[in-house]
Amino acid sequence: MFNTIYRRGLLSATDFSPLRSFLKRHGWRFGVNRFVAGERLEDATEAIRKLESRSLLSILDLLGEFVTTAESVEAMTQEILLTLEVLSRSGIAPYLSIKPTQIGLAVDADLAWENAQRILDRGRAVGAHICLDMESYPYLAPTLDLYRRLHKVHGNRVSTVLQSYIKGSLADLDDLLDLDPKPVLRIVKGAYKEDPEIVYRDKNRGARSFRGLERGATINVATHDERLLSEVAAFVRGAGIPHDRYEFQLLYGVKPKLQEAFVRDGHPVRIYVPYGKDWYGYFSRRLAERPANLMFVIRGLFG
Amino acid sequence: MFNTIYRRGLLSATDFSPLRSFLKRHGWRFGVNRFVAGERLEDATEAIRKLESRSLLSILDLLGEFVTTAESVEAMTQEILLTLEVLSRSGIAPYLSIKPTQIGLAVDADLAWENAQRILDRGRAVGAHICLDMESYPYLAPTLDLYRRLHKVHGNRVSTVLQSYIKGSLADLDDLLDLDPKPVLRIVKGAYKEDPEIVYRDKNRGARSFRGLERGATINVATHDERLLSEVAAFVRGAGIPHDRYEFQLLYGVKPKLQEAFVRDGHPVRIYVPYGKDWYGYFSRRLAERPANLMFVIRGLFG
Description:
2 copies of one chain form a homodimer.
Chain A: H1 2-15, H2 17-26, H3 32-35, H4 41-53, E1 57-62, H5 70-89, E2 95-98, H6 109-125, E3 129-132, H7 140-154, E4 158-163, H8 169-176, E5 184-188, H9 205-214, E6 218-222, H10 226-239, E7 246-251, H11 256-264, E8 269-275, H12 280-289, H13 291-302
Parallel strand pairs in A: 1-2, 1-8, 2-3, 3-4, 4-5, 5-6, 6-7, 7-8
Helix pairs in contact in A: 1-12, 5-6, 6-7, 9-10, 12-13
């Protein structure tokens, strides 16, 4: 209850335009860099190297969502293609998260398909994995359509995301589990401000993850809930699921000790590394998610 | 840290003789009956029936530990034999927990063996299961010896208890896992006031339980730690362990909502039902275990 009020309140507050301008201008001074690797690609590659030295895998995310103009879409797509080159030249196997509207889904489904093809074709040459991320509810069905088309051509070089708080997520999961080859799915609770009618209060991530693993999918559980992580670890041990069939995915800067504890126990742990100029939406969702994250920023303001 | 101080402090306080006399005299007035079914066997059978109506299994425990005279041992053994009769005549399949010193282990190992045989022979006729419980460290090795002898004759009509906080518990577990048939083990953290040298701070119950299940034993996980219960549930689901290979065991009166939640999810849940006049040691360990339990008693005192 407190969590819901806090979350909705914080998301409304960060929508408030004077606060938005202030944070956008001064954010770096008091702790955005705890959650965002930097504004430039070089910042991101440096972050990936540091994570590597701690035995952590990375998933790179060029920030920017709800992109609605063809010009921005082309710029984003170019930036993503450049990222593939730069990472691969740095000797890093690229593992990227892409928002569907970055490649045009809010403009035109065919545009998104063509841009995804450009990215995946270039990606094939450099051994990249592309995770087609999920934005808010209106993009859910078109994103799954796009994913299915891509999966047919590129198999498991592309994955997508299931937001378990969406009421239709169980049906979506079951549909996806019929794919051949079995899909790679990132399972998250979902963090957008949605109509309460379409989301569960109960997040069901454990149940969704177990079902996916039981039916042969590769499941990447994205959470900071220590209990859920332990449950999945126990399930995986019980079922004898090999290391290439699951990952624990956590966000850059959130609970670093937890990240390391699961690495120490021998689990594959991948860190979501966001970078880029458009960090505001991402940042405010991190604050909404956990009062501890807001406290971190407040301490930055006064310390 | 707080927990350790609280626990040791409370165990010392309840050893303090004026407090002990006061509580022994007035305990029933302010909440002993939350944790103890009653002083008489009829109280216990009534509690078992009530649990049955909530789909909960029972393990009946005649209170009394560290029994050191041959007279008390004979009285206890008679009471246990009577309990088998009464339960069976009431149509209840007896599932009893017995402390080794109740049947004579503090007097003489042969006496304990003979009394255990009397109980298990009578138990066979009424389809009883006997769990040979574990007391404090000095009784550990003799109890395991007794259990092994009994297991050879009575197989899995007898089970025993592994206290995971004991440093030797992993080696003990591995030895027990070589038994044929694979043993039935209740895994607990352990709640006696022991020399810090021989106990772990980390309780290791999860690791012990998984190992036991992997090696084919029947594991009864005795805990109120919701996270541990969820981990075991996840392991069991992953490994496809059938319902007759594990149980969740919780104590009478502790976290009733948790008991019911796991029953609702389809897990076998058994409640440890203590009864009898000698409830003081058991009661003080419950207070030491969780500040919430002490608060319950304090509210009883003033309300």
